[in-house]
Amino acid sequence: MAGGRLATWERRADPALTAAAVAFLVAYAVPIIWPELPVTIRDTCEVLTWLVWGAFAVDYAVRLMLSPDRRAYVRRHLLDLAIIALPLMRPLRLLRLVTMLKFIDTSAASRLRGRILTYVIGGASLLGFVGALAVLDAEREVPGGNIDTFGDALWWAFTTMTTVGYGDRYPVTTMGRFVAVGLMVGGVTILSTVTAMLASWMVERVRADVAAEQVEAEQRRAGEN
Questions:
Q1: Long-range contacts of 125-128 (CB under 8 A, 24+ apart)
Q2: What is the structure's pLDDT at 225?
Q3: 6: containing domain
Q4: What is the pLDDT of residues 183-201, one digit of tens each?
Q5: Residues 80 and 119 in one domain
Q6: Which domain of life is it from (predicted)?
Q7: DSSP state of 89
Q8: Which of 68, 66, 69 is nearest to 6 (CA)?
Q9: Which of 8, 148, 160, 202 is most buried, with most CB under 10 Å away?
């Protein structure tokens, strides 16, 4: 019974929480990209981020209460708990935006490869943008830092994701390095998915070509006979 209520809550809450995560992204990104904004706008964005944090906290509490095994739920959702409990980890709240990919998927191509491609493109773009915001938030105006603009942050994020790592930009703070580790892991995962998808496509093409050649050969033999 509790499991059914939990599933019902998740089904109803996920769209609203995804919208809240988008609002958080906007409120989090605007002051970082445009630091010269008036104080009133910056304060409004800060209030909005805390309201979204409150929504996530309420959602976590409700899911915990509805879970049939609360200890197991906590163990399976340690990252969610850390994001709520540790204010310094607020950039990680942007991970909630990954839920948007479920809605993107509903309009994707019906074939599995089309859905995978949608996830890869959406995930890579989101990961790079979020990583750039998070590292700029951590590194800007830090003594010895070298990531001072959003352009620098985007360049660093995508070179890190693709494992190129030129070394011209790099984080010097602890939070910035945590972001770097996340981007490295995410980038390797995405590249592995792309490689596997391309390999699968090439194998299918070769099999299709071989099958077509076999059919043509059989037709020629049948015509000769």
A1: 126/97, 126/98, 126/100, 126/101, 127/161, 127/183, 127/186, 127/187, 127/190, 128/154, 128/157, 128/158, 128/161, 128/183
A2: 63
A3: 1-88
A4: 888 888 877 777 777 777 7
A5: no
A6: Bacteria
A7: G
A8: 66
A9: 160
Query: Do residues 111 and 214 share a domain?
Result: yes
User: Is residue 23 in a domain?
Assistant: yes
Query: 3-state DSSP: the chain helix, strand, coil percent, rounded to 5?
Result: 85, 0, 15
Strands (E), 104-214: none
Residue with structure tokens 């011209």?
Answer: 168
Placement of tokens 């445009």 in the chain: 34
Which among 4-13, 84-93, 95-104, 126-135 has the top mean pLDDT?
Answer: 126-135
Same domain for 191 and 164?
Answer: yes
Count structural domains, the chain: 2
Let me know whether 147 and 219 are in one domain: yes
Residue range 121-148: average pLDDT?
86
| The domain boundary residue, chosen from 57, 88, 119 | 88
Please report, for the domain that includes residue 188, its CATH number: 1.10.287.70
Which residue in the block uniquely carries the two structure tokens 């590292």? 135
The pLDDT, as a whole number, for residue 106 is 44
What does the pLDDT read at residue 2?
55
Residue 148, CA atoms < 13 Å, CB-side half-sphere:
7
pLDDT value at residue 109: 42
Measured in whole angstroms, how far is the alpha carbon of residue 153 from the centre of its chain? 17
Phi, psi torsion values for 175, nearest 5 degrees? -65, -40
